[in-house]
Amino acid sequence: MEFLVHIGFAKAASTYVQKHLFSGAHPDIGILGGTVATATKSGGDIFTNGTGRQRFVQSFAFDADAARARILAGATPDRRVVAISNEELAGHPYSGGIHGEIIAERIRRTLPEAKVLIVIREQRSMLLSVFADFVTRQNARCGLRRFLASRLQTQIPWHRPEFYCFSHIVGWYRQAFGAANVLALPMECIRQDAPGAIAEICRFAGVRTPDSVLAEPENRRDYVQYAALRLLPGLNALGSPTPANGNTGLGIPDIRRGLLAAVSAALPSAAVRRIVDADARLIEIHLRPLVAADNRQLQGMVGHDLARLGYMMD
Fold it and tell me: What was the pLDDT predicted at 37?
């Protein structure tokens, strides 16, 4: 039995890859707990603490032998490869990926022979998508500038631009598992040639390539509601209480939803583009000093031309 761990990242075509390869649909790849051919995330609770949606990461509270036993017990016996796929294994972007290294060490201790897939994404578009999710789905009342450069980092884990310096996580896994056992694949390869990217992952995993795949990644983001909330962030005060709004939401999501739909419908496409472009420029100014140099290091770990794919280079 062989193991493949797909650790993310979030907002990097994870749902698309899971649907095609890590859902039980592929005849050679089994998932934990069954073979249902639907998009799924598996193994998030293996390397974290807690269960269900109440997962957390508690230091000094992990049993690698017990985790491996759980994996073996939940594996599909007639599949060549057992896959674990969950974006949160890379660490959560809202908290700067603070738990990513703890989880990585747990994976190494539990499955030292595993192959590791890391799907990355051009950092400017990834951060914009992360912040858009923060605003639209988490009812955040935090502005972009504060999200990019929040304070009190040692007291409350928060977003950090260093999260997008991917050479650190890719380099760690290459050192821990061996370079030949780690595939770092840019999401842009999936967008440009989805069948080719899926075939590359299958070759890496040592399994056959599916006869056909969908041409387009899943969950393309619609920025209209994002633009509406950037204009009227107070609408999120009406939403459900979440950590992103300091648990101060008024808990009337239906009213928020109705007002947001009305504002979004009235917003001209040109205004949406101006708002998104302005935020994208601010993100680039914030990220370039860090990630442009890091991408030069990352290039040596990725078998694709990052500059041609639009990644910033110094």
Answer: 47
Which residues does the chain have with pLDDT short of 50?
A: 37
Give dist(CA 182, CA 174) in Å, integer: 6
Instruction: Give domain limits for the chain.
Output: 2-220+292-299, 224-285
Secondary structure (3-state) at 93: helix
Which pLDDT belongs to residue 1? 87
Sequence-distant (6+) residues with CB within 8 A of 234 are 141
- The conformation of residue 64, written as its DSSP 8-state character, comes to H
Name the token pair of 57.
Answer: 């990461």
30 SS3 class: strand
Q: Using CA atoms, how far apart are residues 242 and 4, in angstroms rounded to an integer?
A: 33
Burial 97-130 (b: 16+ CB within 10 A, else e): bbbbebbbebbbbbbeebbbbbbbbbbbbbbbbb
Place of tokens 């387009």: 216
Class of domain 2-220+292-299: alpha beta
